[in-house]
Design goal:
Chain lengths: 245, 245
DNA sequence: TATTTCCTTTAGATGCGTCTAAATCCTCGC
DNA sequence: GCGAGGATTTAGACGCATCTAAAGGAAATA
């Protein structure tokens, strides 16, 4: 009934709404999806007609309950696929996104069910993003600390790294900064740079923009750096984590 | 570069070409894809412009080498997906087709590689259809015996059951007629019906139309019916089999 | 407050894939 | 060898998703 493109718009609006709050601007969606503003305006009209969003002219849009449900469905497909690709087809953490984007509109409900079952109904994907439940219940979008919020001496565990830049994800993957990784903040430079010690003992410096996209929670446990984590095996979501991407 | 729809046309032309021979009629493609003849004519024009097929007006079309390569690529995706779904996601033999159709245009080369690897580079899919090799070398389309070619007393092994009717496949699956199954022909009725004994000892009667879509080879080995086969584990293609679907 | 600047929307056009209706061509039977 | 019937193609239209160019509204600044 809905086209792939419409699903993409709903997903985009949902994501922007989740991070930046309610009325979502035409230009924000245009930039997110790589379309021109008139194209977006035109699609807003169609989605409004179908009752998937509400529009206040020149102000922006907001998803209706129905529109949000569609977005959650697509997001569930996306994140289940990411988890599956990482776990069963040996995709690296940074590679999963594009493949999931390509497939998310085309899998059947049956496929969704079976993938979820094989994975043991995971609650987070390899980036630490929460996977909507099968009943597509709304997700609670609490604000979580980011690495950028912390100062020297703080010890944290990475919970989520959501970013659409594959290169950035690749870099972090190589640096050993993944969901589940423990980090010690060893320096905060005044010009927008955070330096952390990873579990392996290496030090990594990250620009603020990157640090701001790394969600963390305070670490409680042993001090020194052992060999605790791996890539994406925390698939039961026991880190008290929250939505956004 | 090519749209999903174009790929579908090329695949359809390839399939028809493989079974019914060279110039493929507009109407044949129209029926195969559920489109009207003018729509097909129009698409033939576009595919010709791109050098993917050759057209003789009012006669029909034939794929160029390039067009055939595209068709083989799509078919490789399709059949690898079918094999993967059956083997790793617990799909039944009759369910795989539709899901593979939906996904075949959207998987990356990387995905293709990894699926092939996980499956151990299978040469046939769960229906017994040959999977094009990674280099997309042309497939040799020999004619194989069908169940309908055989008479009372013949003992055969099913090599391929290619059909687009899900219900028919479901029926055969329940009847225990699958690639690898041994069958004894016990009766051939004059009004278009073949009766076979399956490995389990059950007798099944099948109309000629169905018998004609079941490819077989003569059975050489022990007589009686044991418990040899399963559903789709003959994925190395050791049955000397041939193309069509 | 007036103006400038930026954002959004309207207007109009394009390419794709599809359709129906009508014209054209091929072939088979007489 | 001619005509009838069936297949194919042309003609013309439509909906979708997109664009560029131009017009209109909102908000910030002077």
């Amino acid at each position: 009934m809905l086209s792939d493109v419409m699903e993409d718009y709903l997903k985009a609006i949902y994501q922007i709404q989740s991070t930046s709050g309610a009325p979502v601007a035409t230009s924000a969606v245009a930039e997110y999806l790589g379309k021109t503003p008139p194209t977006v305006t035109s699609m807003f009209g169609k989605l409004e007609e179908r009752g998937l969003l509400e529009r206040e002219k020149y102000k922006g849009v907001e998803l209706t309950e129905e529109g949000e449900t569609v977005a959650l469905e697509v997001l569930r497909h996306h994140r289940l696929l990411e988890a599956y690709l990482a776990e069963h087809l040996d995709y690296s953490w940074s590679e999963v996104h594009d493949e999931a984007d390509a497939l998310e509109h085309h899998i059947s409900e049956e496929f969704e069910r079976r993938v979820a079952e094989v994975l043991g109904n995971p609650t987070v994907d390899p980036h630490g993003d929460p996977i909507p439940t099968a009943d597509l219940a709304p997700i609670d979008h609490e604000e979580a600390d980011t690495l950028g919020d912390h100062g020297v001496g703080d010890r944290v565990v990475v919970t989520r790294v959501s970013d659409r830049e594959e290169e950035e994800l690749e870099y972090l993957e190589n640096a050993g900064v993944l969901p589940g990784t423990r980090l010690d903040v060893v320096d905060v430079a005044p010009f927008g740079m955070v330096t952390v010690r990873t579990e392996g003992g290496d030090e990594q410096s990250l620009p603020d923009s990157v640090a701001a996209s790394i969600r963390v929670r305070p670490f409680e446990g042993d001090p020194a750096g052992g060999e605790t984590n791996g890539t994406g095996d925390d698939s039961d979501g026991s880190n008290g984590e929250v939505p956004t991407t």
